[in-house]
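Training component of the fellowship. As part of building independent skills, the fellow (R.M.) carried out the full modelling exercise for a liganded target. The chosen ligand was thiamine diphosphate. The inputs are recorded below so that the supervisory panel can assess the work.
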Amino acid sequence: MSEAVANAINATEVGTTGPLTAEELHRIDAYWRAANYLSVGQIYLKDNPLLERPLTLEDVKPRLLGHWGTTPGLNFIYAHLNRLIRCRDLNMMYIIGPGHGGPGIVANTYLEGSYSEIYPHIEQNRDGIKRLFRQFSWPYGIPSHVAPETPGSIHEGGELGYALVHAFGAAFDNPDLIVACVVGDGEAETGPLATSWHSNKFLNPTTDGAVLPILHLNGYKIANPTILARIPHEELEDLMRGYGYEPFTLEGDDPARMHQMAARVFDAMFDRISAIQKAARKEGETQRPRWPMLILKTPKGWTGPKFVDGKPVENTWRAHQVPFSELREKPDHLRLLEDWMRSYKPEELFDAHGAFRAELAELAPKGRRRMGMNPHANGGLLLKPLRVPNFRDFAVKIEKRGAEDVESTRVLGRLLHGVMEANREHRNFRVVGPDETASNRIGDVITGTGKTWLSEVLPVDENLSPTGRVMEVLSEHMCQGWLEGYLLTGRHGFFSCYEAFIHIVDSMVNQHAKWLKVTRNIPWRKPIASLNYLLSSLVWRQDHNGFSHQDPGFIDHLLNKKADVVRIYLPPDANTLLSVADHCLRSRNYINLIVAGKQPAPQWLTIDEAISHCTTGVSAWQWASNDQGDPDVVMACCGDVPTMETLAAVMLLRERIPDIRVRVVNVIDLMALQPQSEHPHGLSDEEFDAIFTVDKPVIFAFHGYPWLIHRLTYRRHNHDNLHVRGYKEEGTTTTPFDMCVLNNIDRFQLTLDAIARVPRLVSQVEATQQWYSEQIQRHKLYVAENGDDLPEIRNWRWQQ
Ligand SMILES: Cc1ncc(C[n+]2csc(CCOP(=O)(O)OP(=O)(O)O)c2C)c(N)n1
Ligand SMILES: [Mg+2]
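Fellow's submitted model of the complex:
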């Protein structure tokens, strides 16, 4: 018999005998019925919560919102996981991919008592149930999906695809934790979910916890069948086996049989998990294990109405949301609802006061073993501060400004290595990246720890290790999802990525930003470590990759998020990068974006100057300025390449106009440009005016799309005088300086811009335009002929 068949347990093959006694079977079924009853009640009712009188239209909500179809399956699993937690004293979390099954998790956390403990007004009685029903999908009540408000969830379940990757992120470095994770069969069609199965190649059975994937094969999505439900079952099991799992199948629709079989299958799977962990932890087994996973095949909308208006509903896509509405128009629908809810026998489930009957309530685990109360699902409770070594020890010495080139990210890599070492004992810091850790030149972080790898290793490989703490996989989705799961369960991390490709996770970042925003107003959710990005391999230096790798738009994307969640830094050199990184690694509840180049580049600030520059976020660089408080022009810059071009333009300006008074301003914290009313980092108008003046031209060279600077500053006094140069989607495979020329952010252009905008230099403009054309022509010819930048550009150095 094949392993697949051996693991398949089919409703028709097994009777109702064992492992549950008749009493246990009755009680677990009652528990499930209670959860289903409370789920339907949340979707439909605002009054008469225990059906103590005949249902009337007044009891029904005016707007029927929610998702029924997935919920009975989720509730079924919850009841059985509770049994396992109690029998085996397990430390378990529950992540549901079909997060639209929110009413099920609310119902279960209510039944186990977590909900009332966190929200005391939702009492364990008739009034409490009424409030529980009313608040669901009600204006200013609770969302219909699992969300930060939901006890036990680390998962904003509205956007499908991230459940499994979150589950693995939670399990890493939590050897005692088991994360049960439901994957919707529709959700399984998404890109992120499809790749997430591979997370099992990164899970160490000794030092990490276990993930139990449960593929919820209810057959349908919103309006269509699912792919996985319509391929031969063997093919599906082969697929899972191909991903490296040992698939178990549980199929049926008869509740009594299903409870017996579920008890048996879950026991078998948890025996497997224990055996795998024991083999690795006690017997030194080093082979990558085949972890169990469950294919749970039950009808969508199980136990709900079978037919509505003559059409089949249970076990079809019609069960997805609210199986029937039009209660006001169609009197038989009211009856249908009452019959459906009474089929769960509420009078057997709740006592005369509406409290869940004690003999059923005791099926739930106790205290922190309840899945709604597992502290890992409120990671801030467990968060230990990250130990960050003194970043000054990693500083670049500045003998002469701009004299020596350094790869800034390489310096950061040394700091990250220090962080990794300092927290080795706590095992609470990981670095993720899509195969770019070395390419982004932070590779020093790998030294000593290695890169997580539990698959085959060949002699040619370097630094792969089952205990590695740097995680590389060519999936930005997995990097993002693992890190989110890791942070949400109370640990720290860092994500380095090519600038252009971070867009792949735009949508995931949206969801994480929403989570952080909402948790700000939930007192019981404790702050978690920030999500830190380093974007390198930047738009300006894609010498061999070209246009496909040129896109600085992630900054624009993040800027749409709530001001109290997002921070964006563009350090112009290594010392500022160190100071920014130190700040980000220690911070809480933010999304920190650091944009920094990896190519050898001039260094400007001593470490003390860097710290004070980072503290204000924007400052005039006195050493590069000669304005004596009254500039002709402000030359502003943000980003490493724009900073270099600006300083080169300042030298050209002085050559051409010896008495020109220039103020050089560098912006490292983009948010400082916004008004104070919009962002906590925003400069006051007085501070802004003191730096940018109220009436002098400002030539602003920006790393990203230029209109972003206008968006940030449009309310500032001197906005009409602000002229921004940045990336305007002119890219190709060309020399570094030619990229600047193509986008008009080069030193010649900035010089021309400055002279053209200073009123007293009007007589110089024509000659400067002529000069500009000559320089550009010279540059173009040289580049075309020699394939490299002019020597004076390549060898340029800052001179005081
Ligand atoms: C990324 C994403 N795309 C589309 C949707 C809209 N949507 C909500 S539920 C759903 C169907 C989900 O089907 P499945 O995963 O099988 O869940 P279940 O059957 O358990 O409800 C879709 C397409 C979404 N929430 N997220
Ligand atoms: Mg489905």
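The panel noted the following from the submitted structure. Residues 311 and 568 are 54 Å apart (CA to CA). The chain is about 35% helix and 15% strand.
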